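Cross-check.
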Amino acid sequence: MDSPKPQFVLMLALTPALMTLACGDTASDEARRGLEAPTGEPERVLLPEPDPDGITFYPWEDVYAAGRLDWAWAIASDHGNLEQLERLLADGVDPDVLIGGDYQRSSEPRRHGRTALIEAAWLGYEEVARRLLEAGADPLAREISEEEHFGGDTALHKAASQGHAGIARLLLEAGTPVDVAGQGGATPLKYAHDEPETFRLLQARGADLEKAGGATQLLHGAASSRSTEMAALLLALGAEIEGVAGKRQYGYTPLWSAAVGGYEEMTLFLLEQGADPHVKPY
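Predicted model, tokenized:
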């Protein structure tokens, strides 16, 4: 029987400390600090030498054995590997430690990124999300960005945007307010504009349609997708089929949004619902 394939991570850069390990040089006391194996043994696994002309992949087991638990946590979170996450929780890793696309290879604390719970909500790892909440992960932790106008979303925003209704339910039961404000003040309901099941769940839990921009505004989001079910739901909630985006007196109608986006099924649906094909976007 073939042995299971190890999880791998894309290595984009090396810190001086890890470069020392990877190249096999004698590590200074400062470089060694925090890189010992989890057992505290003096001998540790060295990470493979990086390919100077390409991209190097590092197995999770090697990163774990090198003592980089924060980095190993990021890899396990990205792959939704519950077994690896359990090992790291047992080693005392904080479930709310921030991770990011570069996997935080330096020993400095992260100042931007997202938690493993946010990652699980985004990628649809429901059992991982459940276990993280049991381990004390904060459902209200927010994604932090280096960019001024980005960040601020919670795990519920991510679950809503991707249609992961099961995870959204877990987060609501864990105490996340249904109308929690995220990036730019957006609520999870706004993010669910093309995810009917999650949209209905949030509505059933009392989400405010107006805080999400109103039915007409959300219809524009639905029109720029393939969810005719969502469009029908929003029309039933009072969305104006000729309503323009935003608070302007002119602009694209939902039909224009669908047609310009090349969504044929949505375009035909809106025409069947009475959308005027002669309305001009100005």
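The CA atoms of residues 101 and 113 lie 8 Å apart. Residues 69-79 form the longest helix (11 residues). Passed to J.P. for a second look.
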